[in-house]
Amino acid sequence: QWIFMNGGFVKKEDAKISVYDHGFLYGDGVFEGIRAYDGNVFRLKEHLVRLLDSAKSILLQIPYTLDELSDIVVQTLQKNELQDGYIRLVVSRGQGDLGLDPFKCKDPQVIVIAEKLALFPEALYEKGLNIVTVASRRNRSDVLSPKVKSLNYLNNILVKIEASLAGVPEALMLNDQGYVAEGSADNIFIVRNNKIMTPPGYVGALEGITRNAIMELAIDKGYDMTEQVFTRHDVYTADEVFLTGTAAEVIAVVDVDGRTIGEGVPGPVTQELLQDFRQLVIRDGVK
Ligand code: PLP
């Protein structure tokens, strides 16, 4: 396996960074998770725009243009002979001293890792997930915007820990007002009476690339698709619930906090959008 770093490719065993890298010391950096299907990179430009926006927001200068980053991602897939895979693009602030000061870090690291990925076993896509809501909150008044996909994922990791302790594969975060925000690394959609809703970004959700693609597909299909603030009650009483994300793709949720969702199986709207999404990812990629 080949990793892109320091402007070229190195073997996985040799891909090492300094212990003084502020990405390691402080989670100071940004990242993207991107996916390739059949040799096509899905919505690469959107991912790179989000990466550049995240970097700009934290005053991190990425030493490549969007087009250069795009070439690096495609080359990393080719070098690893991957047609289908998951790509992790990481930009860390780079090496500094033990102080927080990011301006002492003169050489940001750009690292691209590509490999095969299956987040959930295939059987769960057919059965749907049981999930819980957790106490960890997405804080809307954090200094850092939830739009920044930063390397500091402790909040999300705590959500994942709470999920594991509850014996389920994923969990939902609420925000500080108790509105439903998102999963540990995925967005949530609910369906009621054929109306589809997902929380707006300002609730504290990342504006997921998969989320945006699903919203477009739903609108194309003529669904009443809106961004809405909603609570756990709305999730419990929905006809269908599903999660979206680059790694998760589209996956049904059939139980939340012990409340069976709809019939307890993936519903028709979820299945339709999953099919549409699977066609879109092949059609809509960058070779
Ligand atoms: N929310 C969070 C916190 C995430 O980390 C991710 C994954 O990237 C998502 C949502 C889903 O976003 P996307 O569809 O762009 O992968």
UniProtKB/TrEMBL annotation:
EC number assigned by the record: 2.6.1.42
**Essential cofactor(s):** pyridoxal 5'-phosphate
| Keyword GTP-binding in record | no
Keywords from the UniProt entry: Amino-acid biosynthesis, Aminotransferase, Branched-chain amino acid biosynthesis, Pyridoxal phosphate, Transferase
Q: Name one Pfam family in it.
A: Aminotran_4
- Give TM segment ranges: none
Q: In which pathway does it act?
A: Amino-acid biosynthesis; L-leucine biosynthesis; L-leucine from 3-methyl-2-oxobutanoate: step 4/4; Amino-acid biosynthesis; L-isoleucine biosynthesis; L-isoleucine from 2-oxobutanoate: step 4/4; Amino-acid biosynthesis; L-valine biosynthesis; L-valine from pyruvate: step 4/4
- Its catalytic activity? L-isoleucine + 2-oxoglutarate = (S)-3-methyl-2-oxopentanoate + L-glutamate; L-leucine + 2-oxoglutarate = 4-methyl-2-oxopentanoate + L-glutamate; L-valine + 2-oxoglutarate = 3-methyl-2-oxobutanoate + L-glutamate
Checking InterPro entries in the record gives: Aminotrans_IV, Aminotrans_IV_CS, Aminotransferase-like, B_amino_transI, BCAT-like_C, BCAT-like_N, Class-IV_PLP-Dep_Aminotrnsfr
- EC class: transferase
Q: Name one GO molecular function term.
A: L-isoleucine-2-oxoglutarate transaminase activity
Q: Which GO terms describe its biological process?
A: isoleucine biosynthetic process; L-leucine biosynthetic process; L-valine biosynthetic process
GO cellular component, as recorded:
cytosol
Q: Which PANTHER family match?
A: AMINO-ACID AMINOTRANSFERASE (PTHR42743), AMINODEOXYCHORISMATE LYASE (PTHR42743:SF11)
Q: Please report which protein family the annotation says this sequence is part of.
A: Belongs to the class-IV pyridoxal-phosphate-dependent aminotransferase family.
Job of this protein: Acts on leucine, isoleucine and valine.
**What name has this protein been given in UniProt?**
Branched-chain-amino-acid aminotransferase
The protein's organism comes out as Jeotgalibacillus soli
